[in-house]
Each structure stands twice: as structure tokens, then as C-alpha cells.
Amino acid sequence: MRLKLVTVVGARPQFIKAAAVSRAIRGTPAAAIDEVLVHTGQHYDANMSEVFFAELDIPAPKYDLKIAGGTHGAMTGRMLETIEAVLLDEAPDRVLVYGDTNSTLAGALAAAKQHIPVAHVEAGLRSFNRRMPEEINRLIADQLSSLLFCPTETAVLNLAAEGITSGVHNYGDVMLDAAMHYRERAARASRVLDDLGLRGKPFILATCHRAENTDDAEALAGIVRALTDIARTWPVVLTLHPRTRKLIDQHGLGGGLAGVTVVAPLPFLDMVALEQAARVIVTDSGGVQKEAFFYGVPCVTMRNETEWVETVALGRNVLAGASTAAIVDAVERAASELPAPIEARPYGDGDAATRIVQRLADLG
Ligand code: UD1
Questions:
Q1: Is any ligand 1 atom within 6 A of the Cβ of residue 183?
Q2: What is the C-alpha to C-alpha distance for residues 33 and 27, in angstroms, rounded to an integer?
Q3: Element (H, E) at 204
Q4: Nearest-10 crossing angle of helices 268-277, 174-189
Q5: Under a CB-based contact definition with an 8 Å cutoff, are residues 215 and 247 in contact?
Q6: How many whole angstroms separate alpha carbon 224 and alpha carbon 62?
Q7: Cα radius of gyration rounded to whole Å, the chain
Q8: How many percent of the chain have pLDDT more than 90?
Q9: How far is Cα 340 from Cα 85, in angstroms, rounded to an integer?
């Protein structure tokens, strides 16, 4: 029996994960699964959305809901209502959601209310910090899911601690599939290192967008100071999420980024090319922490906790919070040592998407 699947995505990291799974779906024998793609519109700038669909060969969404902005409640509420209407029309066998964004929460909730089984890719991650909107989204999405695809053993244990043990599978992290699939293409196709004059040169790559850093003027000022300090020693490239750009202006911090090369959000292949070539990556993104790990690049995370604890335990990631001194110190240390190779494979073997799709197909 063919399985009809509605996939809900909306934000940049979900496009990358969905690309890996959609490719595996297209590779299943006689297309055992019909996938209907719904894009909530949470990320709408061309360089946060369209470019990812084009570059990652993701099929065009059947539904483009164009719901973005507003408060978390307003955004999630509008998504809930609209996704519900889509699900009533499509009557899928299953709904697939990714990660921890407001789009994840709305997709899971709309499906669960219609008794449509929910499959959650990247289940079981926890920061244990409920001030993060993502933590609330994950907790609810996991409660509502009947299939929980965990990227790590830690995630399996987190779910077990909450009493969730049925339907839980650790097939590895689909982000590793994507990293392995696109790394060579990025090295071949991207011109970003030449465009930025960085080919063959050591540099620091930075990203910043988490609410806890951008919405807090003091934290954001601390990060801006740290990047400016580091830029006195190393070239620093900061790819700026629209949220951060707005808040830097709002807090009057724009002048503070002297010496830092600030670029707009990059297409995925350019980002991968920069990540692979960077001496150190400084970030508050979950996905970027892991990509640093996959490419063997030391990472400094501008948060006090991480869901990707394996990267820290294996000595590849340092938690520095938003303190200027801690960030600068951690980057200097990381830049001065060559990281030793790591044998452990906490994120699986790069075949998570195929195994997820096989499991979905088996359940028909
Ligand atoms: C969201 C996710 C976060 C994820 C991140 C990846 C939630 C709660 N957070 O955060 O988990 O790591 O995406 O990027 O869902 N904006 C634009 N153009 C865009 C997208 C957003 O200008 O293309 C603006 C919005 O109008 C808003 C701000 O950026 O003012 C934040 O966007 P939002 O989608 O709320 O959350 P993110 O910070 O991107």
C-alpha cells in the first residue's frame, strides 16, 4: 500500500533535513511513498528559503502558506489553523515534522488533533532550558509523535526519561547525510572563498541568531565586542540572520562590528564551503555546531548549554555563553591547536534518511 505523507517545513534548517529525506523518498522502490510538501512560510526571504529549494533539489511545495512574523503565539496559531485545513483536504496517512521550530509545533498539533500519526525527525533533543522557544516546541512535538526518529543515543535517553519509549528509533542524524552528500559539491561549485578573498587563508566563521542572544541587548553587545576583538587577529566572516541584523540596528550596535566581514545569509553550498575551510566556527546555531563537528573544525558555541552534548564531550565544542572574554579566549585556544581526528560516530553513518524512509514505507 502506498503511504501518503504530508511533510511540514518552514525554516532554513528544516529545508536541509527535508532535502535528505525527500531524496531518499524519491529513491524508494516504485515510489512507495507519496509526499506532499507544505511550506509554512516562516522563513520567506529568498536567501533563507527559495535558494535552498533550488540548490538542494527539494520538490516545490504543493502548499506555500506564507505565514511569517508576529509573536510566537500568533505565528503558531495561524499555522495551526491553515495546516489543519490542508490536512482535512489531503487526508494523509502520516505527517512528518522536523526539528523544533514553530512550524514543527503547528504541524504536529494540527495532525494530532485529527488523529493523524505524527513522525518527528530530530526527536528527543533537550537543552533543559524552557526559556528557549525551541525547547517548548520539541517537548510538545515529541509528546504528540508516534514515530520518533532520534539523531543520537542521548536523545533516546532523554525521551526514556520522559517515559517515551515506544516508536523510538536512533538511525543517526539526517544532517550528517546532508553534510556528506553536499560537501564535495560545495567545494566544487562554491566561489565564496574567492569572492571573500579567503582561499587558503585561516579565518573565523561566525553566525548568531538565537533569541537568547539577539533579544538581550547586553548579550548581543558582548558578542559584537568579542567578534570585533577576534577580528584584530583573524579575518572574521559573520553571516547575519535577518533577526540579528534587525536587532543589531535596534540596539544601536551596528558601528561595533568594525573589521568584521558581514554577509547576508548564505546559500547552503557557500555555507558548507566556508565551514569546511574555517579555522574555528563561532555560533549559537544547533546545525552549525554539528556541521563543524562533521567537517573536523573546532567550534565555540555562544550558549550556556547545547543539545549536541557529544560535540562537547569529544572535545570539539566549547560552550562560551555570550561573555566577551570567554568567547575570545575559547576562539584563541581553538585556533592555536590542530584538532585530533575522532573515531567515535555519535551521529551515525550518514544513512539516517534512507533508514527513516524504509521504516515509514514498512509501516505503509
Ligand atoms: C527559527 C527557529 C529556530 C531555528 C531558526 C533557523 C522558532 C521558534 N525558531 O528562528 O529554532 O534555529 O529559525 O534560522 O521557530 N525573518 C526575515 N526573513 C526570513 C525569516 C525571518 O526577515 O526569511 C525575520 C522574521 O520576520 C522575524 C525574525 O526574522 O522578525 C525571526 O524569524 P523567526 O522565523 O521568528 O525565527 P528565527 O529566529 O529564524
A1: no
A2: 10
A3: strand 204-208
A4: 90
A5: yes
A6: 40
A7: 20
A8: 93
A9: 52
Pocket test of ligand 1: the residue of 52, 241, 268, 307 to mutate, having most ligand atoms within 8 Å of its CB, is 241
Q: Does any ligand 1 atom lie closer than 6 A to the CB of residue 329?
A: no
The C-alpha angle with vertex 243 and arms to 103 and 317, in degrees rounded to 5, equals 85
Cα of 11 vs centre of ligand 1, distance in Å, is 7
| Whether residue 344 has pLDDT greater than 80 | yes
Q: pLDDT class for 31, splitting at 50, 70, 90?
A: low
Amino acid symbol at 300: V
Q: What's the gap in Å between 48 CA and the centre of ligand 1? A: 9
163 Cα to the center of ligand 1, angstroms? 31
Tell me the pLDDT tens digit for each residue of 191-207.
Answer: 999 999 999 999 999 99
Residue 286 grid coordinates: 544547533
- CA atoms within 13 Å, Cβ hemisphere of 54: 7
> How far apart, in Å, are the Cα atoms of 35 and each of 10, 19, 94, 259?
16, 12, 10, 46
pLDDT tens-digit series, residues 328-343: 999 999 999 888 889 9
Torsion of CA 271, 299, 200, 57, to 10 degrees: -20
Bridge partners of 120, per DSSP, are 97, 148
pLDDT reported for residue 341? 86
Q: Where on the phi/psi map is residue 74: left (φ > 0), alpha (ψ -120 to 50), or beta?
A: alpha
243 lines ligand 1 (CB under 6 A): yes
CA 129 to ligand 1 centroid distance, Å: 19
Pocket test for ligand 1, best of 64, 243, 291 (most atoms within 8 A of CB): 243
At 122-172, the pLDDT tens digits run: 999 999 999 999 999 999 999 999 999 999 999 999 999 999 999 999 999
> What pTM was computed for the model?
0.95
Active site residues: 209
